[in-house]
Design goal:
Elements (H helix, E strand, L loop, with lengths): L1 E5 L8 E5 L11 E10 L2 H8 L9 E2 L3 E9 L11 E4 L2 E2 L5 H4 L10 E2 L11 E5 L3 E3 L9 H21 L7 E4 L5 H12 L3 E6 L2 H9 L4 E4 L5 H8 L5 E6 L6 H7 E9 L12 H6 L3 E4 L5 H12 L7 E6 L3 H10 L5 E5 L3
Parallel strand pairs: 11-12, 11-14, 12-13, 14-15, 15-16, 17-18
Antiparallel strand pairs: 1-2, 1-4, 3-5, 3-9, 3-18, 5-6, 6-10, 7-8
């Protein structure tokens, strides 16, 4: 089958379209084989290309998000059937450890991600546990393959950050960095569903204009404005109740200076670097909460799929590239040109 792979880590020059063997392992009783129709890119893919500290077996297939058609099912699979249109939750748990039994699947001691630890979705066929597939909801107008592929990772990540971890409440003020990326855009929409006042940032005025159309109450250009100072002015010096971070070193101090008393900073990424500092005196004096967040559990995934079925949180797709042009898709993501999700059409 055709797949986008790396044979070594490094620059985007390592990303290649290749012919690889289809997964040949017999299906387990609760496994599902999905014929991929579309796969969406995430910054995770760039990190994998550049060498996350994981021992890959090369060639390694990239891609975490995907959607397609059920091509085969194990003997005990009951939730999907052959021919069902499904999308994938890319976080694979063992569903047996103590954390999984407690319902905290993303804390699983054997937690792995498609495209990071496991062969990914930028290919024609994948095998995943039954728990990791969801039938694409029927909505009007119908979701296309690109939208279905773009849904899972960013929506689950943003939901856990905003709702489960930060527990954002109606009437609170939230600051969201880097609008334009999938997680930030989804966090904006979730925050508005929760009844919050939303401040977003970008270095692109065009992206900020789109954010206003999506419901952002205030937009700040972090290239030309001092974000923390503006947040203090907008909140009568009180500060934000919640800050949604996925940038890392470049924005960390501004995030802390934007945070109000009793505020919660929730982070899921370190795009500009993982090493940050904090004045512990301010942390305990202002009763801040610093919250880490990665993906989400099975119940949260079913909840966001239910919201999609009700017409909420429809994915925003930036551009769709044919399989043969996926290198250009990676380059667009790497340059930060996207507004929404970049998708690769694997099959027509």
């Amino acid at each position: 089958m055709r797949a986008w792979v790396i044979r070594a880590t490094g620059s985007l020059d390592q990303v290649q379209l290749a012919d690889v063997s289809e997964p040949a392992v017999p299906l387990g009783p609760r496994e599902v084989r999905v014929a991929i129709r579309a796969a969406a890119l995430n910054h995770l893919d760039l990190f994998v290309v550049r060498g996350l500290p994981h021992g890959h077996t090369f060639p390694h297939i990239l891609g975490a998000d995907g959607a397609g058609v059920v091509a085969a099912v194990g003997t005990e699979v009951r939730s999907v059937r052959l021919g069902d249109r499904v999308m994938l939750n890319p976080g694979i748990s063992d569903y047996t450890c103590e954390y999984c039994r407690a319902g905290e699947h993303s804390l699983c001691v054997n937690y792995r991600m498609l495209g990071e630890h496991l062969p990914g979705t930028l290919c024609e066929s994948v095998i995943v546990p039954e728990q990791n597939v969801a039938i694409i909801p029927t909505v009007t107008p119908p979701l296309n393959w690109a939208e279905a592929a773009a849904f899972s990772l960013v929506t689950l990540t943003a939901w856990r950050m905003v709702v489960t971890r930060a527990q954002l409440r109606a009437g609170e003020t939230v600051l969201i960095w880097g609008i334009g990326g999938g997680v930030s855009l989804t966090a904006l929409r979730i925050a508005k569903l929760r009844g919050a006042r939303v401040i977003v940032t970008s270095s692109s005025d065009a992206k900020l204009e789109t954010a206003r159309r999506l419901g952002a109450d205030v937009t700040l250009n972090h290239r030309t404005q001092q974000v923390a100072q503006e947040v203090r002015i907008l909140t009568n010096k009180r500060g934000a109740d919640v800050v949604v971070e996925n940038v890392g070193a470049a924005t960390w101090q501004q995030s802390l200076r934007s945070l109000g008393r009793g505020g919660r900073l929730v982070t899921c990424g370190a795009t500009t670097g993982p090493d940050v500092g904090i004045d512990l005196r301010r942390l305990f004096w202002y009763h801040w909460s610093i919250l880490g967040s990665t993906m989400g559990n099975d119940a949260e995934y079913r909840e966001v799929v239910g919201l999609l079925a009700s017409g909420e949180l429809r994915p925003i797709v930036d551009r769709v590239f044919p399989l043969e042009e996926a290198r250009a898709a990676f380059e667009r993501l790497d340059k930060g040109e996207q507004l929404g999700k970049i998708v690769v059409q694997v099959r027509d």
